[in-house]
Amino acid sequence: MRSLLMRREPKPAELLLVPMIDIFTVLVTFLLMTAVFSRIAIMQIDLPSSAPAKPAEPKFRLEVIVRQDGFELSDGNQLIATIPKVNGAYDMNALTERALAVKREHPTSEDASVLSEPKVPYDELIQAMDAIRSAELPAAEALVAGQRATGAQAGAADARTPQTARVALFTNIALGDAP
Length: 179
Hints:
Elements: H1 2-5, H2 18-34, E1 62-67, E2 70-74, E3 79-84, H3 92-105, E4 111-116, H4 122-133, E5 134-138, H5 142-146, E6 164-168, E7 172-177
Parallel strand pairs: 1-4, 4-7
Antiparallel strand pairs: 1-2, 2-3, 5-6
């Protein structure tokens, strides 16, 4: 009976950390998966003033539409010119001449759009862009005098050939699909 009366000494309690780490891992994973990440952005809004504003005149933009049967030049609203194909090929010289005439009317404009139909070959599209980007003009021309000439041709050393310069026409060109 003595053994019954004797008390056992209690063992020190052991703290089990592994199950606790497992619970926290599952809890953090669950919270990350269900969290809503919102992006806060500040929008700057310019409110109109009470004074009536003058409507700005839209800038001129040349549109060259490359069709199966030739080119169409417009300003976005009205047709400027139509250049048909010559002997089954696009007339790039006529396109450059028309772009030059438009540039003389709008000397500060540099924007153009080249719009093409789906069946137009890519090479023809690139040639059309090159035709409206720049032109070779005599150095005495007014457009050349207004712009800084990018260089003279090598043949300018000969006294009989006139000096020419490459002039930028419409250098900001955007591509798109024809309507």
